[in-house]
Amino acid sequence: MIKITYVEHNGREHVIDVPRGATVMEGARDNGIPGIEADCGGACSCATCHAYIDSNWVGKLPAKEAMEADMLDFAYEPDPSRSRLTCQIKVNEALEGLILHMPERQA
Amino acid sequence: MSGIVIVGAGQAGASLAAKARMLGYSSSITLIGEEAIPPYQRPPLSKGYLLRDMDLERLFLRAPSFWKQQDVDLKLGAPVTAIDRTGKSVRSDGISIPYDQLVLATGSCPRSLPKKIGGELKSVYTIRTVADVNAMAAEFHPGRKLLIVGGGYIGLEAAAVGAKLGLDVTLIEMSPRILQRVAAFETSNFFRRLHIQNGVRILENTGLDRLTGDGRVSGAVLSDGTELTVDFVIVGIGISPRTLLAEEAGLTVENGIMTDAHGRTSDPSIWSAGECASFPAGGGQIRLECVGHAIDHAELVACNILGASSRYEPKPWFWSDQYDVKLQIAGLNTGYDRVVERWGEDRSGSIWYYRQSRLLALDAVNDPRAYLIGKRIIEAGQTIAPQFVSDPSTDIKALLSAATSVEPSVT
């Protein structure tokens, strides 16, 4: 299990144990954390699992693929350096302690 | 303890239960599913799950523990057989479950081929449930002959999986072109070419006369008399809303379980959401077959059960994955009279549907930016002049600022 901290837009923090191999989106969804909708279930088709990665973590994640980057362009208030679609980030040991912040709303 | 009872634990039923709890509903919620596994996503069944790229657990809409945490009484493997409207209860698994508010989220079932043309032979499949896909998994071996009946999205997605796994795939479509019912000529052309490049044989204007075989399917006779040898068959000829329970209970059924704009059926204590429900739109009753609708409609009904009185405004969107192509669709193209194309490099592009000057919908292939821009324009009730769209020198983002309100005469 990998510890990930999900911070709601109102500042409420949830520290969650997410299984290795799951996605950051699935960690939120399976634990009922508000703020990540993931309507398409993780198919990179809907852009409703957008979150801001904590600045200290930005460089430690695998790079975005073109599809994700294009979808993020039209997320609600994207931040070019910190925004990610959480369905595209697989959880592994390197992400132990990852912190991410939810947007005010999804697109 | 007779709160909300939901019949059907698919996308709509699961979304409704979760939303009601999120809104603070504190009485009991019972979610009754016919299948023996917790609520799961169906779209991957004809994509990643069929390809064996995804485990069963990955399909679950929520971790199984979620339902317990949310105090949702999940009854699985328990088909509901009758509704007692006078006594306000449903019958399931030999017991009677009382309700204060009942929701029918029974979804759809795939149409199957009639028995007299071989529809009941072994190795003839439809794709709707995990059990359906598990049953056909052992058939997917390289070199085997797969016949797909029906050139809609389900059939095309199954064809893509078959081709990827090295099967010999033939797809037949009765209409003059694949996707005829749901998409423009231009979109059909794109996907026909894509499948042919991947080795799928596409036969349009070609119906099925009958399947043949002794117990198990072994051949097919097509409408032009051609005989094919086949190892197995996938039938993707559309779905029908599951309305039997509602009909037997005397609810009004009109192209699905009829609801008003709030999601209420002809019985004020009974609601219906998702694919099985028809709702008022454009002067008639329409149904929508997509995940986005199942979620939005179910969440609206949850709000209304709790007293909101909101009217449903559908914002349909769809997607399909075939080979390395992602198709994303926003809006509904019903009644289009003009199509405008916008193509970029690397097989990416979009097809925009208009009625007069109004943008109705778009199909975007490997072009998520066009999809999201079009979706935003449509959902804002705006349109965009076709000449901006079709001019490849217009920056895609500039389309957003060029969008205008729809002229009243064409709304």
UniProtKB/TrEMBL annotation, chain A:
Keywords: 2Fe-2S, Iron, Iron-sulfur, Metal-binding. GO terms for molecular function: 2 iron, 2 sulfur cluster binding; electron transfer activity; metal ion binding. One of its GO terms (biological process) is P450-containing electron transport chain. Residues 2-106 form the 2Fe-2S ferredoxin-type domain. It comes from the Bacteria. Transmembrane segments: none annotated. InterPro entries: 2Fe-2S_ferredoxin-like_sf, 2Fe-2S_ferredoxin-type, Adrenodoxin-like, Adrenodoxin_Fe-S_BS, Beta-grasp_dom_sf. Its cofactor is [2Fe-2S] cluster. Belongs to the adrenodoxin/putidaredoxin family. This is 2Fe-2S iron-sulfur cluster binding domain-containing protein.
From TrEMBL, chain B:
InterPro entries: FAD-oxidoreductase/Apoptosis, FAD/NAD-bd_sf, FAD/NAD-binding_dom, FAD/NAD-linked_Rdtase_dimer_sf, Reductase_C. Residues 317-400 form the Reductase C-terminal domain. Residues 4-295 form the FAD/NAD(P)-binding domain. It holds the Pfam family Pyr_redox_2. It comes from the Bacteria. The keyword Oxidoreductase applies. Its cofactor is FAD. GO terms for molecular function: oxidoreductase activity, acting on NAD(P)H. It comes from Allomesorhizobium camelthorni. The keyword Oxidoreductase applies. The lineage of its organism: Bacteria, Pseudomonadati, Pseudomonadota, Alphaproteobacteria, Hyphomicrobiales. GO terms for cellular component: cytoplasm. This is FAD-dependent oxidoreductase. Keywords: FAD, Flavoprotein, Oxidoreductase.
